[in-house]
Design brief:
With 361 residues, the protein is an alpha+beta fold. It has 6 helices and 23 strands. Helix 1 runs antiparallel to helix 5. It is flat, with a radius of gyration of 33 Å.
Protein backbone atom coordinates (compact mmCIF):
# COMPACT_ATOMS: atom_id res chain seq x y z
CA UNK A 1 0.00 0.00 0.00
CA UNK A 2 2.76 2.43 0.94
CA UNK A 3 4.76 1.90 -2.20
CA UNK A 4 1.61 2.36 -4.33
CA UNK A 5 0.80 5.71 -2.76
CA UNK A 6 4.42 6.80 -2.97
CA UNK A 7 4.42 6.14 -6.71
CA UNK A 8 1.28 8.24 -7.04
CA UNK A 9 3.08 11.15 -5.43
CA UNK A 10 5.71 11.15 -8.16
CA UNK A 11 2.93 11.16 -10.78
CA UNK A 12 1.85 14.69 -9.95
CA UNK A 13 3.82 16.47 -12.68
CA UNK A 14 2.79 19.37 -14.89
CA UNK A 15 1.03 18.50 -18.13
CA UNK A 16 3.27 18.45 -21.21
CA UNK A 17 2.44 19.29 -24.79
CA UNK A 18 0.89 16.49 -26.85
CA UNK A 19 0.40 16.12 -30.56
CA UNK A 20 -3.12 16.83 -31.75
CA UNK A 21 -3.25 13.35 -33.32
CA UNK A 22 -2.85 11.86 -29.81
CA UNK A 23 -5.83 13.82 -28.46
CA UNK A 24 -8.48 12.68 -30.94
CA UNK A 25 -9.24 12.03 -34.60
CA UNK A 26 -10.83 13.68 -37.62
CA UNK A 27 -14.47 12.86 -38.18
CA UNK A 28 -14.93 10.14 -40.79
CA UNK A 29 -11.49 8.60 -40.27
CA UNK A 30 -12.76 5.65 -38.28
CA UNK A 31 -12.58 1.89 -38.46
CA UNK A 32 -15.60 -0.30 -39.23
CA UNK A 33 -16.36 -3.69 -37.70
CA UNK A 34 -16.94 -6.66 -39.99
CA UNK A 35 -18.44 -10.03 -39.10
CA UNK A 36 -19.14 -13.28 -40.88
CA UNK A 37 -20.36 -16.83 -40.29
CA UNK A 38 -18.40 -19.75 -41.64
CA UNK A 39 -17.06 -23.27 -41.22
CA UNK A 40 -13.61 -24.46 -40.15
CA UNK A 41 -12.61 -27.88 -41.50
CA UNK A 42 -9.64 -30.20 -41.05
CA UNK A 43 -9.94 -30.58 -37.27
CA UNK A 44 -8.61 -33.71 -35.59
CA UNK A 45 -11.92 -34.90 -34.16
CA UNK A 46 -12.45 -31.76 -32.06
CA UNK A 47 -15.29 -30.22 -34.07
CA UNK A 48 -19.02 -29.73 -33.47
CA UNK A 49 -20.02 -33.35 -34.22
CA UNK A 50 -23.66 -33.27 -35.48
CA UNK A 51 -24.67 -29.79 -34.29
CA UNK A 52 -27.49 -28.51 -36.52
CA UNK A 53 -26.07 -25.11 -37.51
CA UNK A 54 -22.65 -26.67 -38.23
CA UNK A 55 -24.39 -29.24 -40.42
CA UNK A 56 -26.27 -26.53 -42.29
CA UNK A 57 -23.04 -24.59 -42.77
CA UNK A 58 -21.29 -27.59 -44.28
CA UNK A 59 -24.26 -28.25 -46.57
CA UNK A 60 -24.00 -24.66 -47.78
CA UNK A 61 -20.27 -25.04 -48.45
CA UNK A 62 -20.53 -28.27 -50.44
CA UNK A 63 -23.51 -26.93 -52.41
CA UNK A 64 -21.16 -24.39 -54.06
CA UNK A 65 -19.48 -27.30 -55.81
CA UNK A 66 -22.68 -28.93 -57.00
CA UNK A 67 -22.87 -31.53 -54.23
CA UNK A 68 -26.31 -31.96 -52.64
CA UNK A 69 -26.82 -34.16 -49.59
CA UNK A 70 -30.02 -36.23 -49.56
CA UNK A 71 -32.83 -34.92 -47.31
CA UNK A 72 -32.61 -36.16 -43.75
CA UNK A 73 -28.93 -37.07 -44.00
CA UNK A 74 -26.76 -35.24 -41.47
CA UNK A 75 -23.04 -36.00 -41.73
CA UNK A 76 -20.94 -36.53 -38.62
CA UNK A 77 -18.87 -33.37 -38.37
CA UNK A 78 -16.21 -34.09 -35.79
CA UNK A 79 -13.66 -32.60 -38.17
CA UNK A 80 -15.63 -29.36 -38.80
CA UNK A 81 -16.87 -26.51 -36.62
CA UNK A 82 -19.19 -23.54 -37.04
CA UNK A 83 -17.38 -20.26 -36.34
CA UNK A 84 -17.86 -16.52 -36.25
CA UNK A 85 -15.26 -14.40 -38.03
CA UNK A 86 -14.55 -10.82 -36.96
CA UNK A 87 -12.30 -8.15 -38.45
CA UNK A 88 -11.78 -4.40 -38.40
CA UNK A 89 -11.77 -2.42 -41.64
CA UNK A 90 -9.46 0.60 -41.20
CA UNK A 91 -10.16 3.95 -42.88
CA UNK A 92 -8.90 4.34 -46.47
CA UNK A 93 -8.62 0.54 -46.89
CA UNK A 94 -8.51 -0.21 -50.63
CA UNK A 95 -9.64 -3.32 -52.52
CA UNK A 96 -6.91 -5.94 -52.52
CA UNK A 97 -5.45 -5.00 -49.15
CA UNK A 98 -5.31 -7.67 -46.47
CA UNK A 99 -6.86 -7.64 -42.99
CA UNK A 100 -6.13 -9.73 -39.91
CA UNK A 101 -9.14 -11.75 -38.75
CA UNK A 102 -10.19 -13.53 -35.56
CA UNK A 103 -12.02 -16.86 -35.74
CA UNK A 104 -14.06 -18.08 -32.73
CA UNK A 105 -15.97 -21.33 -32.27
CA UNK A 106 -19.74 -20.91 -32.11
CA UNK A 107 -20.80 -24.35 -30.85
CA UNK A 108 -19.35 -27.29 -28.93
CA UNK A 109 -16.03 -27.54 -30.75
CA UNK A 110 -13.23 -28.40 -28.32
CA UNK A 111 -10.36 -26.98 -30.37
CA UNK A 112 -9.75 -25.20 -33.68
CA UNK A 113 -6.08 -26.15 -33.81
CA UNK A 114 -5.01 -27.28 -37.28
CA UNK A 115 -8.23 -26.06 -38.91
CA UNK A 116 -8.78 -24.21 -42.19
CA UNK A 117 -11.42 -21.53 -42.64
CA UNK A 118 -13.49 -21.95 -45.80
CA UNK A 119 -14.28 -18.80 -47.86
CA UNK A 120 -16.48 -16.46 -45.77
CA UNK A 121 -17.97 -13.07 -46.74
CA UNK A 122 -17.48 -10.38 -44.10
CA UNK A 123 -20.31 -7.88 -43.78
CA UNK A 124 -20.60 -4.46 -42.21
CA UNK A 125 -23.42 -2.97 -40.15
CA UNK A 126 -25.27 -2.14 -43.40
CA UNK A 127 -25.18 -5.87 -44.34
CA UNK A 128 -23.00 -5.19 -47.39
CA UNK A 129 -19.96 -7.38 -48.11
CA UNK A 130 -16.66 -5.54 -47.68
CA UNK A 131 -14.13 -8.39 -47.47
CA UNK A 132 -13.69 -12.12 -48.07
CA UNK A 133 -11.87 -14.34 -45.56
CA UNK A 134 -10.12 -17.69 -45.87
CA UNK A 135 -6.98 -19.38 -44.58
CA UNK A 136 -5.25 -21.59 -42.01
CA UNK A 137 -5.77 -20.77 -38.34
CA UNK A 138 -3.02 -19.97 -35.87
CA UNK A 139 -4.30 -21.17 -32.47
CA UNK A 140 -2.31 -20.47 -29.32
CA UNK A 141 -4.38 -22.73 -27.04
CA UNK A 142 -4.35 -26.48 -26.51
CA UNK A 143 -7.05 -28.84 -25.24
CA UNK A 144 -6.65 -32.58 -24.50
CA UNK A 145 -9.30 -35.06 -23.27
CA UNK A 146 -8.30 -38.44 -21.80
CA UNK A 147 -10.31 -41.66 -21.85
CA UNK A 148 -10.96 -41.51 -18.10
CA UNK A 149 -12.65 -38.11 -18.43
CA UNK A 150 -9.70 -35.98 -17.29
CA UNK A 151 -9.02 -32.81 -19.28
CA UNK A 152 -6.12 -30.43 -19.83
CA UNK A 153 -6.62 -27.00 -21.34
CA UNK A 154 -3.91 -24.41 -22.03
CA UNK A 155 -5.07 -20.89 -22.93
CA UNK A 156 -8.12 -20.84 -25.26
CA UNK A 157 -8.04 -23.46 -28.03
CA UNK A 158 -11.48 -22.47 -29.41
CA UNK A 159 -10.32 -19.14 -30.89
CA UNK A 160 -7.54 -18.29 -33.31
CA UNK A 161 -6.31 -15.71 -35.79
CA UNK A 162 -5.37 -15.63 -39.44
CA UNK A 163 -2.89 -12.82 -40.16
CA UNK A 164 -3.82 -11.26 -43.49
CA UNK A 165 -6.65 -13.75 -43.79
CA UNK A 166 -9.15 -11.39 -45.46
CA UNK A 167 -9.02 -9.43 -48.70
CA UNK A 168 -10.82 -6.08 -48.95
CA UNK A 169 -13.41 -6.08 -51.74
CA UNK A 170 -15.02 -2.63 -51.34
CA UNK A 171 -13.79 0.64 -49.85
CA UNK A 172 -15.73 2.81 -47.42
CA UNK A 173 -16.14 6.46 -48.37
CA UNK A 174 -14.92 8.57 -45.46
CA UNK A 175 -16.56 11.72 -46.81
CA UNK A 176 -13.77 13.99 -45.58
CA UNK A 177 -13.01 15.30 -49.08
CA UNK A 178 -16.54 16.55 -49.82
CA UNK A 179 -17.75 17.61 -46.36
CA UNK A 180 -18.52 21.30 -45.80
CA UNK A 181 -15.62 21.54 -43.32
CA UNK A 182 -13.17 19.32 -41.48
CA UNK A 183 -14.14 18.35 -37.94
CA UNK A 184 -11.73 17.15 -35.29
CA UNK A 185 -13.17 15.24 -32.30
CA UNK A 186 -11.36 14.92 -28.96
CA UNK A 187 -11.19 11.56 -27.22
CA UNK A 188 -12.02 13.18 -23.85
CA UNK A 189 -14.51 16.02 -23.62
CA UNK A 190 -12.94 19.19 -22.24
CA UNK A 191 -13.84 22.76 -23.16
CA UNK A 192 -10.41 24.14 -22.28
CA UNK A 193 -8.56 21.56 -24.39
CA UNK A 194 -10.94 22.10 -27.32
CA UNK A 195 -10.32 25.86 -27.25
CA UNK A 196 -6.56 25.36 -26.97
CA UNK A 197 -6.59 23.06 -30.02
CA UNK A 198 -8.51 25.69 -32.02
CA UNK A 199 -6.13 28.45 -30.90
CA UNK A 200 -3.03 26.46 -31.90
CA UNK A 201 -4.48 25.65 -35.33
CA UNK A 202 -5.34 29.30 -35.95
CA UNK A 203 -1.90 30.41 -34.80
CA UNK A 204 0.01 27.89 -36.90
CA UNK A 205 -2.14 28.40 -40.01
CA UNK A 206 -2.15 32.21 -39.64
CA UNK A 207 -5.89 32.60 -39.88
CA UNK A 208 -9.22 32.25 -38.09
CA UNK A 209 -10.08 28.88 -39.64
CA UNK A 210 -10.66 26.75 -36.53
CA UNK A 211 -13.49 27.11 -34.03
CA UNK A 212 -14.38 25.02 -30.97
CA UNK A 213 -18.11 24.34 -31.17
CA UNK A 214 -18.38 22.26 -27.97
CA UNK A 215 -16.26 20.31 -25.50
CA UNK A 216 -15.39 17.65 -28.13
CA UNK A 217 -15.53 19.06 -31.65
CA UNK A 218 -13.41 21.65 -33.48
CA UNK A 219 -14.45 22.67 -37.00
CA UNK A 220 -11.78 23.71 -39.50
CA UNK A 221 -12.84 25.68 -42.59
CA UNK A 222 -10.98 24.58 -45.71
CA UNK A 223 -11.74 24.30 -49.45
CA UNK A 224 -12.95 20.87 -50.63
CA UNK A 225 -10.63 18.43 -52.32
CA UNK A 226 -9.02 15.20 -51.18
CA UNK A 227 -5.41 16.14 -51.96
CA UNK A 228 -5.62 19.60 -50.36
CA UNK A 229 -7.35 18.36 -47.23
CA UNK A 230 -5.08 15.33 -46.80
CA UNK A 231 -2.03 17.59 -46.73
CA UNK A 232 -3.69 20.02 -44.33
CA UNK A 233 -4.76 17.22 -41.97
CA UNK A 234 -1.21 15.82 -41.98
CA UNK A 235 0.08 19.21 -40.83
CA UNK A 236 -2.61 19.78 -38.20
CA UNK A 237 -2.29 16.41 -36.49
CA UNK A 238 1.39 17.08 -35.73
CA UNK A 239 0.80 20.45 -34.05
CA UNK A 240 1.54 20.30 -30.33
CA UNK A 241 -1.01 21.39 -27.72
CA UNK A 242 -0.82 21.45 -23.94
CA UNK A 243 -4.10 19.80 -22.86
CA UNK A 244 -6.01 21.08 -19.86
CA UNK A 245 -5.35 19.56 -16.47
CA UNK A 246 -7.65 16.66 -15.65
CA UNK A 247 -10.46 17.31 -13.14
CA UNK A 248 -9.70 16.34 -9.57
CA UNK A 249 -10.61 12.66 -9.23
CA UNK A 250 -10.13 9.86 -6.75
CA UNK A 251 -10.62 6.37 -8.22
CA UNK A 252 -11.28 3.48 -5.83
CA UNK A 253 -11.47 -0.15 -6.93
CA UNK A 254 -13.29 -1.77 -4.02
CA UNK A 255 -12.60 -5.30 -5.33
CA UNK A 256 -8.82 -5.03 -5.55
CA UNK A 257 -8.19 -2.33 -2.96
CA UNK A 258 -6.50 -0.06 -5.52
CA UNK A 259 -6.76 3.69 -4.87
CA UNK A 260 -5.58 6.24 -7.46
CA UNK A 261 -5.47 9.95 -6.63
CA UNK A 262 -4.54 12.37 -9.41
CA UNK A 263 -2.39 15.43 -8.86
CA UNK A 264 -5.30 17.90 -9.06
CA UNK A 265 -6.83 16.74 -5.77
CA UNK A 266 -6.64 19.34 -2.99
CA UNK A 267 -7.79 19.07 0.61
CA UNK A 268 -9.30 21.95 2.58
CA UNK A 269 -8.38 22.33 6.28
CA UNK A 270 -9.55 19.19 8.08
CA UNK A 271 -8.63 17.02 11.05
CA UNK A 272 -8.83 13.24 10.74
CA UNK A 273 -8.50 10.36 13.16
CA UNK A 274 -9.15 6.75 12.34
CA UNK A 275 -9.21 3.95 14.91
CA UNK A 276 -9.57 0.21 14.67
CA UNK A 277 -11.35 -2.17 17.05
CA UNK A 278 -10.24 -5.83 17.17
CA UNK A 279 -12.27 -8.50 18.99
CA UNK A 280 -10.56 -11.85 19.56
CA UNK A 281 -12.32 -14.97 20.83
CA UNK A 282 -10.22 -17.99 21.88
CA UNK A 283 -11.91 -21.34 22.55
CA UNK A 284 -10.09 -23.67 24.99
CA UNK A 285 -12.27 -26.75 25.61
CA UNK A 286 -11.41 -28.74 28.79
CA UNK A 287 -11.84 -32.49 29.26
CA UNK A 288 -13.64 -33.30 32.55
CA UNK A 289 -13.26 -36.80 34.04
CA UNK A 290 -15.92 -38.24 36.41
CA UNK A 291 -15.05 -39.21 40.02
CA UNK A 292 -13.97 -42.80 40.58
CA UNK A 293 -16.84 -45.34 40.91
CA UNK A 294 -19.41 -42.60 40.21
CA UNK A 295 -20.70 -44.22 37.00
CA UNK A 296 -20.24 -40.83 35.31
CA UNK A 297 -19.07 -40.15 31.74
CA UNK A 298 -16.19 -38.14 30.36
CA UNK A 299 -17.42 -34.72 29.19
CA UNK A 300 -16.07 -31.62 27.44
CA UNK A 301 -16.36 -28.29 29.19
CA UNK A 302 -16.22 -25.18 27.01
CA UNK A 303 -13.95 -22.35 28.12
CA UNK A 304 -13.88 -19.10 26.12
CA UNK A 305 -11.53 -16.13 26.42
CA UNK A 306 -12.71 -12.84 24.89
CA UNK A 307 -10.29 -9.94 24.42
CA UNK A 308 -11.02 -6.51 22.93
CA UNK A 309 -8.16 -4.43 21.56
CA UNK A 310 -8.57 -0.91 20.21
CA UNK A 311 -5.79 0.64 18.15
CA UNK A 312 -5.57 4.33 18.79
CA UNK A 313 -4.11 6.43 16.00
CA UNK A 314 -3.22 10.08 16.58
CA UNK A 315 -5.33 12.72 14.87
CA UNK A 316 -3.65 14.44 11.95
CA UNK A 317 -4.53 17.73 10.32
CA UNK A 318 -4.53 18.77 6.67
CA UNK A 319 -3.30 22.32 6.12
CA UNK A 320 -5.12 24.59 3.63
CA UNK A 321 -4.56 23.44 0.05
CA UNK A 322 -2.98 20.12 1.00
CA UNK A 323 -1.61 18.38 -2.10
CA UNK A 324 -1.27 14.78 -3.19
CA UNK A 325 2.09 14.39 -1.42
CA UNK A 326 0.51 15.63 1.84
CA UNK A 327 -2.27 13.04 1.56
CA UNK A 328 0.25 10.26 0.87
CA UNK A 329 2.41 11.26 3.84
CA UNK A 330 -0.54 11.41 6.23
CA UNK A 331 -1.94 8.03 5.16
CA UNK A 332 1.47 6.37 5.36
CA UNK A 333 2.01 7.84 8.82
CA UNK A 334 -1.01 6.05 10.32
CA UNK A 335 -0.44 2.86 8.30
CA UNK A 336 -3.94 2.82 6.81
CA UNK A 337 -5.02 -0.19 4.79
CA UNK A 338 -6.86 0.26 1.45
CA UNK A 339 -10.22 -0.21 3.20
CA UNK A 340 -9.25 2.40 5.82
CA UNK A 341 -8.15 4.82 3.12
CA UNK A 342 -11.48 4.48 1.31
CA UNK A 343 -13.32 5.25 4.55
CA UNK A 344 -11.15 8.34 5.16
CA UNK A 345 -11.63 9.64 1.62
CA UNK A 346 -15.40 9.14 1.77
CA UNK A 347 -15.54 10.99 5.09
CA UNK A 348 -13.48 13.88 3.70
CA UNK A 349 -15.83 14.07 0.70
CA UNK A 350 -18.92 14.12 2.92
CA UNK A 351 -17.36 16.77 5.15
CA UNK A 352 -16.77 19.00 2.14
CA UNK A 353 -13.01 19.04 2.70
CA UNK A 354 -12.12 17.22 -0.52
CA UNK A 355 -13.17 19.01 -3.70
CA UNK A 356 -12.81 16.06 -6.01
CA UNK A 357 -14.95 13.51 -7.79
CA UNK A 358 -14.92 10.20 -5.90
CA UNK A 359 -15.40 7.27 -8.29
CA UNK A 360 -15.84 3.78 -6.83
CA UNK A 361 -15.48 0.96 -9.35
Amino acid sequence: MRWLLALLAFGAVPAQADRIKDLGAFQGLRANQLTGYGVVVGLAGTGDDSLDYATQGVKGVVSRFGLTLPPGVNPSLKNAAAVLVTAELPPFAKPGQRLDITVSALGKAKSLRGGTLILVPLRGADNNIYAMAQGNLAVGGLGVDAADGSKLTVNVPTAGRIPGGALVEHLVDTGFASAAALQFNLNDADLTTAQRVADVINQRLSGNVAQAIDAVSITIATPPGAQLRAGLMARIENFEVRPADAPARVIVNARTGTVVINGAVRISPAAVTHGKLTVRVDENPQIVQPAPFSNGQTATQQQSDIAVEETRNPMFRFAPGASLSDIVAAVNRIGASPADLVAILEALKQAGAMKAELIIL
